[in-house]
């Protein structure tokens, strides 16, 4: 507020405040004549023509507060003497028209509350009286005051009554709306051309006073869909169009959309859309469309829309959108048009969830717009963000159906790398989370083309944060398991497409993608049939290359995958033709253990895993299994830390008593080593854990028919254990003795004492 306006406001406020104080004193003395006199002095300040609209509004609010107190006084006077008609007659004799009308509205409000006159008659009289003030600002605020005072007095009944019916309220509000809109628009044409921008700002400051009428109409419970369609909407749109003013039309159309129920908009969509074509050229019609479509979309979610079955809403909207595109230049406004497409595609998906062609049509329209206006080369950030939103809606709703839409990849190509990657990740997440299977070579090719920003580095690649990168690659790894086909040849080809893409991804991605691909090939091996062109040998060659690559990147993972591949041959090589390949996998696991693992804890866990796996492989000849077991046993018994030697020898012993190989001599050799170490450790270092481990291994192998195990040997260790069991191993000892006891009840483990 500039200094002149502030000075004028302060002067007027001082008068209002002084008059208010004097009016209060008159309240206390019940001097109605003085009350009216001081009220006139106060209201007369609103006759000013020097105040800007914003300053005038501040002054109006001060006067409004005083008038609220005045209304309370008039009600008290009525209760005291019951002469409301005389009071109404009395204020009509106030000479100045503006104070007179404010007082008439105030007394009229009380008059209606007394039920001595119908709201219909009083409001009709007051709306006519207000025509006496035609100054734009003074007339606008006078009618705004009338609107405020009538808020709780508008008849809202569908049936005729003494107070009136809802049609009377509709007529009152529409008349007030029409007059206020006319006065508001007239403000634009006061003053010189150079003040145009200033006047537009001032008008925008006052727009809520006009929009209040629309809000009042929407709050009338009696305004049914029928009344809205036949009276409220046509007359409101007539007022808006007759204003021939862009500011008024822009704001009031948005008011209509925001104020009334979405169901009403849906049933009158054609009227609303037709009206937009008749608005002033400078009206931002796209924004109106967007608000309307978003409101209907929100309403359509989860609602059974019968009207959708009877009226082709999509075609209706598309006709108007196409017309808007043809009549309006998109130069500099591509972002707004794409935002319109976002609202349109969202509505289409809500109203026609199974119609992919509608979505495809909208995407193609977006591509045509961008190609025509920009070729996608100079899109701003907002446009790119809106393209990402445009792609996200069909992706969330339609899943892989977007792969068949030509406009989708084209729109993706306009995005910068980061946004493109986000859309690609959403595609992958959608496929994985919804369990959408990739069932053909063509689908796999198209899918991987869409998400290439996740598969390998390209020209505009931007490095992801470590956490984001891990999430992306884990989803890519899960994607390979969505490939299915009953035809082994086709499935093999689809996995091959993934393999080729994964090899392009580099080491950082392969640590995530190769293991998933290896397990996908292993699963595929179980589906091979004699009639398939692909043989298990073909699969093992591919697996070997993948495992070799992983072993160089991550040896700890490499030896585990080698063992998995050996199990694959063990399970599916029914003709026993691939023993050499299986041996190579198992041997590689031992080589990795020996040459590439340095951490002692990692080596300890690795030898346990390797020995356990070798014990279950049955695809080797005696010579090969003995060689593998001897190497593994050597590592287990000699290359571990001192406190793990006992367990290492026990592992070695079990290697030689498995499905593939049963060599009692070797079993006893390693058991005796473990026995000796455990006894020494138990007697010298009180190591009860090692003793109990050896006892349990003796019991296990004895139960599995290793005949050379003697009860006397076990009893010797049991005697040692009794002496050194501590709190840490007491539960282990108790479980061991319970096991012996239960087996002896079955007639087994005879001779063992505890």
Walkthrough of the structure:
This is Vacuolar protein sorting-associated protein 35. It is a peripheral membrane protein. InterPro entries: Vps35 (IPR005378), Vps35_C (IPR042491). One of its GO terms (cellular component) is retromer, cargo-selective complex. Its main location: membrane. The chain is an all-alpha fold and 754 residues long. The protein folds into six domains: 1-117, Methane Monooxygenase Hydroxylase, Chain G, domain 1 (Up-down Bundle); 143-258, no CATH class; 261-415; 420-534; 563-655, no CATH class; 663-754. 73% of the residues lie in helices and 0% in strands. The chain contains 37 helices and no strands. It has helices spanning 3-28, 32-44, 53-81, 84-91, 97-113, 119-129, 136-149, 166-186, 196-205, 207-219, 225-243, 246-259, 262-267, 269-276, 285-300, 306-310, 313-327, 334-351, 356-373, 381-398, 407-414, 417-433, 441-450, 452-455, 466-479, 488-503, 507-525, 536-553, 555-572, 579-595, 600-614, 622-638, 645-655, 664-685, 688-703, 711-724, 730-745. Helix 6 (119-129) runs parallel beside helix 8 (166-186), helix 12 runs parallel beside helix 15 (285-300) and helix 33 runs antiparallel to helix 34 (664-685). The longest helix is centred in the N-terminal third of the chain and has 29 residues, at 53-81. The model has no long low-confidence stretch (mean pLDDT 90).
């Amino acid at each position: 507020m500039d200094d002149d306006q502030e000075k004028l406001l302060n002067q007027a406020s001082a008068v209002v405040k002084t008059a208010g104080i004097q009016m209060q004193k008159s309240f206390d003395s019940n001097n109605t004549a003085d009350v009216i006199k001081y009220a006139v002095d106060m209201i007369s300040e609103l006759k000013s023509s020097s105040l800007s609209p914003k300053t005038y509004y501040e002054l109006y609010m001060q006067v409004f507060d005083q008038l609220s107190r005045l209304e309370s006084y008039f009600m008290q006077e009525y209760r005291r003497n019951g002469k409301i008609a005389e009071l109404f007659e009395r204020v009509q004799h106030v000479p100045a028209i503006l104070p007179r009308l404010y007082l008439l509205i105030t007394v009229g409000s009380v008059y209606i509350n007394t039920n001595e006159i119908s709201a219909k008659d009083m409001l009709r009289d007051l709306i006519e009286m207000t025509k006496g003030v035609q100054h734009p600002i003074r007339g606008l605020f006078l009618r705004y005051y009338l609107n405020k005072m009538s808020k709780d007095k508008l008849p809202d009944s569908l049936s005729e009554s003494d107070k009136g019916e809802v049609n009377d309220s509709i007529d009152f509000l529409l008349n007030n709306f029409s007059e206020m809109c006319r006065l508001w628009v007239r403000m634009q044409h006061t003053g010189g051309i150079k003040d145009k921008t200033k006047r537009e700002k001032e008008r925008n400051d006052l727009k809520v006073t006009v929009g209040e009428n629309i809000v009042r109409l929407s709050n009338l419970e009696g305004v049914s869909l029928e009344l809205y369609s036949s009276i409220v909407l046509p007359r409101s749109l007539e007022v808006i169009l007759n204003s021939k003013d862009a500011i008024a039309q822009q704001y009031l159309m948005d008011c209509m959309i925001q104020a009334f129920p979405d169901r009403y908009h849906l049933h009158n969509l054609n009227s609303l859309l037709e009206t937009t074509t008749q608005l002033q050229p400078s009206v931002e019609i796209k924004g109106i469309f967007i608000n309307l479509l978003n409101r209907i979309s929100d309403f359509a979610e989860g609602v059974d829309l019968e009207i959708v079955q009877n009226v082709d809403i999509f075609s209706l909207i598309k006709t108007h959108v196409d017309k808007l595109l043809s009549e309006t230049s998109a130069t500099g406004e591509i972002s707004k048009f794409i935002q319109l497409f976002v609202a349109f595609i969202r509505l289409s998906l809500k109203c026609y969830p199974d119609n992919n062609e509608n979505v495809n049509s909208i995407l193609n329209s977006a591509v045509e717009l961008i190609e025509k206006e920009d070729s996608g080369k100079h899109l701003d950030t907002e446009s790119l963000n809106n393209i990402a939103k445009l792609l996200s809606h069909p992706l969330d709703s339609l899943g892989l159906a977007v792969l068949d839409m030509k406009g989708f990849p084209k729109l993706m190509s306009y995005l910068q790398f980061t946004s493109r990657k986000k859309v690609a990740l959403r595609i992958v997440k959608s496929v994985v989370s919804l369990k959408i299977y990739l069932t053909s070579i063509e689908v796999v090719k198209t899918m991987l083309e869409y998400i290439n920003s996740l598969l390998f580095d390209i020209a505009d690649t931007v490095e992801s944060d470590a956490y984001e990168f891990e999430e992306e690659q884990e989803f890519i790894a899960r994607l390979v398991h969505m490939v299915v086909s009953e035809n082994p040849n086709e499935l093999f080809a689809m996995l091959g497409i993934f393999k080729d893409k994964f090899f392009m991804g580099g080491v950082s991605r392969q640590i995530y993608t190769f293991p998933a691909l290896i397990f996908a090939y292993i699963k595929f091996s179980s589906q091979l049939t004699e009639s398939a062109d692909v043989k298990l040998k073909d699969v093992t060659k591919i697996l070997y290359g993948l495992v070799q690559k992983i072993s160089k990147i991550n040896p700890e993972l490499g030896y585990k995958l080698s063992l998995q591949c050996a199990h694959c041959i063990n399970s599916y090589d029914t003709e026993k033709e691939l023993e050499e390949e299986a041996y190579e996998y198992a041997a590689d696991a031992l080589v990795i253990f020996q040459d590439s693992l340095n951490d002692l804890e990692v080596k300890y866990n690795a030898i346990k895993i390797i020995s356990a796996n070798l014990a279950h492989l049955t695809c080797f000849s005696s010579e090969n299994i003995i060689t593998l077991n001897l190497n593994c046993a050597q590592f287990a018994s000699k290359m571990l830390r001192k406190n793990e030697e006992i367990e290492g020898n026990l592992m070695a012993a079990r290697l030689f008593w498995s499905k593939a190989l049963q060599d009692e001599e070797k079993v006893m050799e390693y058991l005796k080593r473990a026995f000796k170490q455990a006894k020494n450790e138990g007697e010298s270092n009180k190591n009860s854990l090692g003793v109990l481990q050896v006892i349990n291994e003796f019991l296990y192998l004895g139960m599995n028919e290793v005949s050379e195990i003697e009860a006397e040997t076990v009893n010797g260790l049991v005697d040692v254990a009794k002496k050194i069991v501590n709190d840490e191993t007491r539960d282990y000892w108790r479980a061991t003795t319970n096991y012996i006891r239960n087996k002896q009840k079955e007639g087994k483990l005879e001779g063992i004492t505890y």
